[in-house]
Amino acid sequence: MEEPFLLREEELVPVKTTWQRGQLTDELKKVGRLAAPMATVTIAQYLLPVISVMIAGHKGEFSSPASLLPPPSQMSPVSVLCWKPSSFNNGHPPVQTGSKFLKSLCAVWISGALDTLCGQAYGAKEYEKLGTYTYSAIASNIPICILISIIWIYMDKLLISLGQDPDISRVAGSYAFWLIPALFGHAIVIPVTRFLLTQGLVVPLLYCALTTLLFHIPVCWSLVSVFGLGSNGAALAMSVSFWFYAVILACYVRFSTSCEKTRSFVSDDFVSCVKQFFHFGVPSAAMVCLEWWLFELLILSSGLLPNPKLETSVLSICLTTGTLHYVISSGIAAGVSTRVSNNLGAGSPEVARVSVMAGLCFWLMESVFFSTLLFTCRNIVGYAFSNSNEVVDYVAELSPLLCLSFILDGFTAVLNGVARGSGWQHIGAWNNVVAYYLVGAPVGLYLAFRRGFNGKGLWCGVVVGSAVQATILAIVTSSMNWKEQAEKARKRIISTENGLA
């Protein structure tokens, strides 16, 4: 049985600005012990919808390759099923024409508030607050899920009204209906994941994620192939698997001695916890939505270029490759977020600062490795997605820009983790508005449509936006008063106790 990631006594008091010998090494070990399992957990979650579409695809239910699916946090029936049939030709990957925002607004990313609240409460040894925060997050997610469910029930009519093919719209609507239970499963899984992560209990998370993945494969195959439910079976399998995931996580929390102190619920604090949850949850969701909406704009804009099949195929490959790399960066960000929030809650601001440096060390190592790997394999990486030499050559041409994206996205992922751990998600949200919509998108559209750089111009806009985002985050983080952040964390915890949040 894994023990909670307890803070040592010397971490409970501020240290001198000058780092002690071995302090960074010690923090590297702690961040690494959190980052590696969380990256694996994210991969397992990513594979759930991929496997569903792969199995259904082999039965001829989907025309889209699973390799081009969005990550699970942005997965929606529209993004899975609403593709332009004209883009299936010549071996080219299909074009996403749907929106990823539905799932982003629900239980997944708004629960990023728990990185701040649970992490700092655990560091302050206010263990009973972790359970109350988590229960309030689940309760707050349910109305959001109900609202999205209503939209999904009428998905076919909505898509037809937006000009989508009626046959595809009806399939998407049916898929959405059977995916609704998975939405509510997310409302439980993600808060409980944050609850365990902020305590450093990542090994149970890893076991639960892998168990769910192994459970999902035979369930999906049975529903799609044996019972002949087709795409509806794939959606139903997702729903069954996410509820299985939720149940085994809940059982661990209920019966594990590691959660004995933290699973309690204080009803008197419920209202104040809900207020704090939305205070941090809304900007947390905005951080992610604003970033992913830019990529949605990127794919939609590529369909207006002179050779839309080629441009959308290549940009979809670049987006998928970047998403796969981001899984690693998100694991590092999760480790940094947990360590920063724990140490701020514990009143150890300088240790929190060292945690940031440890995360940046990991970022430097992984970004150099994966960028070098991609650049070395740039002439063959396209064959993983397409047999078209034209597509493969175009991917090789865009690879240097994609390498820059690896470096910048990894950097911003780590600093966004710092933002979640510190509680300044609102800065991250406004930063994304400036970086991507006031700078990145205009630059990309100008280069693509006015200067004739086409898809390369669009991706240049992404790189420029990421560079602006990274610069602003670096300035904010480097100028951060960590003692002030620790004091804010203390006041936040006290305000919850007094019902003033």
UniProtKB/TrEMBL annotation:
Keyword Acetylation carried by entry: no
Intracellular or extracellular location(s): Membrane
InterPro entries assigned to the protein according to its UniProt record, in alphabetical order: MATE_euk (IPR045069), MATE_fam (IPR002528)
Any single GO CC term annotated in Swiss-Prot or TrEMBL for this entry: membrane
Keyword Transport carried by entry: yes
GO BP annotation list: xenobiotic detoxification by transmembrane export across the plasma membrane
Primary localisation category: membrane
Entry's Gene Ontology molecular function annotations: antiporter activity; xenobiotic transmembrane transporter activity
This protein's UniProt keywords: Membrane, Transmembrane, Transmembrane helix, Transport
Topology within the bilayer: Multi-pass membrane protein
Parts of the chain that traverse the membrane: 34-56, 133-155, 175-197, 204-228, 234-255, 276-294, 314-336, 357-386, 398-418, 430-449, 461-482
Superkingdom per UniProt: Eukaryota
Similarity comment: family membership: Belongs to the multi antimicrobial extrusion (MATE) (TC 2.A.66.1) family.
Name of this chain's protein: Protein DETOXIFICATION
Organism for this UniProt entry: Brassica oleracea var. oleracea
Lineage of source species: Eukaryota, Viridiplantae, Streptophyta, Embryophyta, Tracheophyta
